[in-house]
Amino acid sequence: MRLFIAVPVDPVREKVGRIMNDLASAAADVKWVKPDNLHMTIQFLGETPQDKVEAVGRAISEACCGRPRFELAFGQLGAFPSLDLPRVIWLGIAEGADRLGELAQALARGLTGQGFALPEEGRGFKAHLTIGRVRSRRNAYRLKDRVSAWSPEKMGLPRVAVDRLVLYESRLRPGWPVYTVVKTAELA
Fold it and tell me: What is the CATH number of the domain that holds 65?
């Protein structure tokens, strides 16, 4: 099973979809995330044996246990590694990133405690919502202009309640992956 753990972002899907449509007008070579598939990945596990799913569920529950719910406010659009050389187009977090990072650390400790060897990322957890993956440099300068034109005020995105972590299975299909909920753990 191909697994990842994420925070759902249902309240912003429609508006982010409209922003992605505007960015797509730059005709850059970007594979945009389908709005129904938008989520904030906290930990990507990749191929995971079926017999490890219960241990992942325990780690998620432990990370959420006693931890209060909170909200995220979205900020500026950006790109990894930069807007000049974009590989991933993302929506940043203006408020709540620290608490999301603490939740991610608690989850990583729980997964390690359950025997998972997590990759060292060196750069640490950076809270963001991936909205597109750049496939080539075609029209990258136009994409940069379109991204720069969107301010947080112009986007007008609602806050998102972080009230649960969700373990998803990802099945790769032609065009778009299909995500299936495997387990959910609620924050206090």
Answer: 3.90.1140.10
